[in-house]
Design a protein that fits this description.
Layout (H helix, E strand, L loop, with lengths): L14 E6 L23 E7 L14 E8 L3 E8 L3 H6 L2 E9 L1 E10 L2 E8 L8 E4 L4 E4 L3 E6 H4 L6 E10 L2 E6 L5 E4 L5 H7 L1
Antiparallel strand pairs: 1-2, 2-3, 3-4, 4-10, 5-6, 5-11, 6-7, 7-8, 9-10, 11-12, 11-13
Length: 203
């Protein structure tokens, strides 16, 4: 089983999730802000909520991530991450945010601050290998402000219409994973084709 599919022992019991699927193609403005109510309308969403549980700690800090929205254009995966503090401040404070893919397996896209500048990089790992190899920025783009908005070309994920996409949103602090959303199973999507919106309209 890929590492990304193991249960996170950090977030388990401290947060629950409510997830919905995309209903329309997206074309958001990547500026790190809520430019328009309509730009993420039709996106799928993952609402992170605090819940009690066996492992719940009353002294645990609140989750840095509060909401994840996601969807596609015909050639791009879009992800938006909202937090309890502005995402620019979160990243500037030394934390790293990563999209960890279970499908395609062995791919992640991480955003962090280095030498005073934010940068996004793809990392790849071969099956059975523990070490990640940096691939570079590819064609991905992002903007961090109040929220974090990410655009990843499907070509960088080597995906075509009809193929599965599955990913977690993870937060790292000093190289250690402190949050993973969802905590157990990934967000799962299917790459849309040109008939996607017509199918949604009929549904």
């Amino acid at each position: 089983m890929p590492q990304e599919l193991y249960v996170s022992n950090i977030s388990t019991g401290a947060a629950g999730t409510d997830q919905s699927q995309p209903t329309a193609l997206l074309q958001p403005t990547l500026d790190g802000e809520e430019t328009s109510y309509f730009e993420w309308l039709g996106a799928g969403s993952l609402q992170v909520r605090e819940v009690g549980g066996v492992m719940h700690r009353t002294d645990a800090p609140p989750a840095a991530v509060t909401l994840v929205q996601f969807g596609f254009s015909l050639d791009t995966l879009f992800v938006r991450v909202d937090g309890g503090v502005p995402m620019l401040d979160l990243l500037a404070g030394g934390r790293e945010l990563s999209l960890k893919f279970a499908a395609p397996d062995g791919v992640r896209y991480s955003i962090r601050q280095a030498l005073g500048r934010l940068s996004g990089r793809f990392w790849d790992r071969q099956a059975g290998e523990p070490r990640w190899i940096e691939r570079g920025p590819g064609g991905a783009m992002f903007a961090a402000g109040t929220v974090l908005e990410v655009a990843i070309p499907l070509a960088d994920l080597r995906l075509a219409p009809g193929q599965a996409v599955a990913f977690f949103v993870a937060v790292y602090d000093a190289g250690l994973e402190t949050e993973r959303h969802p905590p157990r199973l990934p967000i799962e999507l299917v790459v849309p084709d040109a008939r996607f919106e017509a199918h949604q309209w009929r549904a």
